């Protein structure tokens, strides 16, 4: 009798993630927007290409985090995540900055990086059910290891934001 109870308990635990995923509401990730200020920085300094890179990284990171939390990510879902990249600062010069300023060195020029993002989880009727904000920047150059790529700190901020979005989804999807 105890063995049967133990096996049933184990089976319930083993299949709990699948049950949760089956009950979770599908969610869409809307095209990622950038703030007017960041768009100006992209146009005048960082390069338009970098905006595409950042939007793609945000969309992929959020979709991956949602999937890890049991969501089915699909277009046209009843829940939609709307995201705006408010600001992003690179750790290394972008291609545009390197071409505009010959004194910059991809290997030796380094700066404090990071990002600020905002998101809203909405129902199909437009009702906002959760607001997600995240901001993370390196505190000082001392915190950097020297092995940073162009968007290392921004990508870290994006991953943290994506987890916050997935947590908000988990708390509100049922």
Question: Which structural class matches the secondary elements?
Answer: alpha/beta
Query: N- to C-terminal separation?
Result: 35 Å
The number of helical segments is 5
Instruction: Summarize the biggest pleated sheet.
Output: 5 strands, mixed
CATH topology: Double Stranded RNA Binding Domain
Helix content: 40-55%
Per CATH, the class reads Alpha Beta
Q: How many discrete domains?
A: 1
- Described by the principal axes of the CA atoms, the overall outline is elongated
**How large is the radius of gyration?**
20 Å
Order of helices and strands: HEEHHEHEEH
Assigned CATH architecture: 2-Layer Sandwich
Q: Which stretches are poorly predicted, pLDDT < 50 over at least 5 residues?
A: 3-23
- The total of beta strands comes to 5
Mean pLDDT score? 85
Strand content: 15-25%
Description of the molecule:
The protein is of the alpha/beta class and 174 residues long. The chain has a single domain (30-172), classed as Double Stranded RNA Binding Domain. 47% of the residues lie in helices and 21% in strands. The chain contains five helices and five strands, in the order H-E-E-H-H-E-H-E-E-H. The chain has helices at residues 2-23, 36-46, 48-68, 95-100, 152-172; strands at residues 27-29, 33-34, 79-89, 114-123, 128-137. Strands 1, 2, 3, 4 and 5 form a five-stranded mixed β-sheet that branches. A hairpin with a 4-residue loop joins strand 4 and strand 5 (128-137). Helix 2 packs across helix 3 (48-68) and helix 3 (48-68) packs parallel to helix 5. The longest helix has 22 residues, at 2-23. It is elongated and about 55 Å long. The chain starts with a helix and ends with a helix. 29% of the residues are buried. The model is unreliable at 3-23 (pLDDT under 50).
């Amino acid at each position: 009798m105890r063995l049967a109870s133990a096996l049933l308990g184990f089976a319930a635990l083993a299949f709990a993630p699948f049950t949760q995923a089956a009950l979770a509401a599908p969610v869409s990730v809307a095209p990622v927007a950038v703030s007017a200020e960041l768009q100006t920085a992209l146009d005048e300094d960082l390069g338009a290409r970098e905006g595409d890179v950042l939007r793609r990284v945000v969309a992929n990171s959020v979709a991956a985090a949602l999937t890890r939390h049991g969501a089915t990510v699909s277009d046209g879902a009843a829940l939609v995540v709307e995201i705006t990249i408010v600001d992003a600062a690179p750790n290394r010069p972008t291609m545009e900055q390197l071409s505009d300023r010959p004194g910059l060195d991809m290997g030796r020029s380094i700066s404090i990086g990071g990002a600020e993002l905002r998101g809203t989880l909405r129902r199909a009727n437009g009702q906002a059910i959760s607001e997600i904000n995240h901001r993370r920047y390196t505190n000082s150059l001392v915190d950097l290891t020297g092995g940073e790529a162009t968007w290392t700190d921004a990508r870290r901020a994006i991953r943290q934001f994506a987890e916050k979005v997935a947590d908000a989804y988990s708390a509100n999807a049922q």
